[in-house]
User: What shape does this take?
Amino acid sequence: MLFGYKQIISLNENESGVFRYVIEHPTAAVSMNIRELAQETNTSTATVARMYKKLGCASYPVFLSRIQAYEQQMPDMNTCAGYTVSALQETVDKIQKDNDPWQKAVRMILESDAVTVMGCGNCGALAEYAARYLSNAGFYATAVTDVFYPPRLGNTQKHLILMLSESGENRELVKQAKLNQKYGSHLVVMSSNPDSTLASLAEVALPITMPRFLLPQTYDLTSGISMLYGIEYLGQELLRQNDRIKKIDPKIDLDAGKA
Assistant: This one.
């Protein structure tokens, strides 16, 4: 993320005006020196200096370099759909090319008597969907989106945690992963960062592609379609490899739950 929420709200009215101008006109702003930017925003060089220091930049050139780097990594607003489609296709290709970790994750779920899906933020919403989808496939799962939720203390040898994290570096999720592993829970991580801390802790890391799409105001428009595909792939494989739903009662109408 370019700048943190707490940093942005610390700006006063004049400093916020400078910041908004830079965000809305990044190409023009990076070509200005500090006096030109102050003049363009009807403020002073002191205001500009306070603004970039509150945003964690040691100097004006450092501030401009961060703005320039951010501008270069931002997707074209007119081609966002293309980014989403290409990320999904890349995820599908990854699963087809190296299916071993996905099949290992399926086997681990098959051997589990309880599955907890964990995530926070946007991945927390996907965790709730994943828990419902796995349950629909016959493997009762619950979602935990509170990163401070207490770990399971008993009967953990057959307890599996499926952790969803785009970056794989969320500090609180890392703590949760270590804490639950300490008590014997197994860990599977789905992330777009195969070299992340969470991926290194997992018994199985499931790689997906999720290009980050963050706005300066701390809005996160990163698409979750690839992660959604990964979740449904697991559910479909579980249903294909285990017929526990059919074993419950042959009279059950398997079409009854269709929306």
